[in-house]
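Need the bound structure for iron/sulfur cluster, inputs here:
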Amino acid sequence: MTLTASVDTTLTQISAGTAPGAACSPDLVEKPWVFDLRAPGYGPGSSMGDVIPAGSPRQGALPAFYREADAAELDRRILAAKEALGDRLVILGHFYQRDEVLAYADYVGDSFQLATAARERTDAEAIVFCGVHFMAETADLLSTDEQSVILPNLAAGCSMADMANIDQVEECWEQLAELYGTEPDADGRVPVIPVTYMNSSAALKGFCGRNGGIVCTSSNAQTVLEWAFERGQRVLFFPDQHLGRNTAKAMGVPLDLMPMWNPNKPLGGNDASALKDSRVILWHGFCSVHKRFTVDQIAKARTEFPGVRVIVHPECPMPVVDAADESGSTDYIRKAIEAAPAGSTFAIGTEINLVQRLAAEHPEHTIFCLDPVICPCSTMYRIHPGYLAWVLDALLGGEVLNQITVSDEVALPARIALERMLAARPPVPTGV
Ligand code: SF4
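Answer from helper R.:
Posting the output first, comments after.
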């Protein structure tokens, strides 16, 4: 099915029986503030079955005015605030955000593109990040002390980022130090280099900065692993096992040298010899959006659309990446579609808001999501124009709500890990 309306509109139509299709939760047609006051949880969508950690930020009640305002009133207030604040404000919107929010974004991109935009807009006093918590933290790391980063709904976390916390990673690190020691080998390579995916808390980026490690994105994971293997005998990769496994496998690392670390078990559930032989230790984390894609969906797409080009995100499980024609970041997917000859057919394995938007932007192609069930990212879903209007109205009144601040103690080493990533470059090819 090729869909071109926004995901919100499509969900409403499905719920009303005026459009075909299925959603993973009937609650997706509710407004997200319905969930702010319920027991902690990620809310409807792909992460609704995941366990939210105790102590995750809670939003609290959105004032009644913003809950009750219709779309036209919210639109009027948001545009008025943007007009009044001018260059003092920049609104960033992630690719996976709902169209109804992205309509107001000054920049739309992936998490790192948006953090870079935040760094470049030093004239903006307020950076309103319509994404999730770790992205707002990264924007705070890369922006100046004078700028405020605002997350319109504090419940917009990330279930994958929450799967590795600093206490668990410190505990893992101690166990590995006991097993391997800390001395480098004859080639000067230390026993383990920690690598964290951008989709992690600032505390984990800080951990990497303090311990000779580095950050990666889904665009540069191979370059970063090459950087790490030059300096270490093995890598501890967190929190996304799939990005780690898919990347290392593509580099030729055998699967049996990639044990999984379960933080709830001694030695991560491994025996010491498997850890000693390992090249990449994979944290037991995953993205519930990308875990939904299957090899069967790809087979079905190929049967129904002979010649279809299947592109999936590297956060998908390895069998799915192996069965696809290509895998790549959101930016890779976007550029592949832009570069294709008119009349191409794409089956895409990434978040539905982006896929549906790409389908709408490229009527010259047939573009559809591999997963026939509409199941957006639960945490991106928590941002809605109501929250955006609320934080912008407050800014107009001189009040900064929902500010995301990373302490200096964490920020200094986290920036080191990010700078290492920016400095890491693919090896220069030799020969012809
Ligand atoms: S798509 Fe996955 S990794 Fe991205 S914010 Fe949602 S849960 Fe986190």
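Comments: The CA atoms of residues 251 and 319 lie 16 Å apart. The first helix runs from residue 7 to 16.
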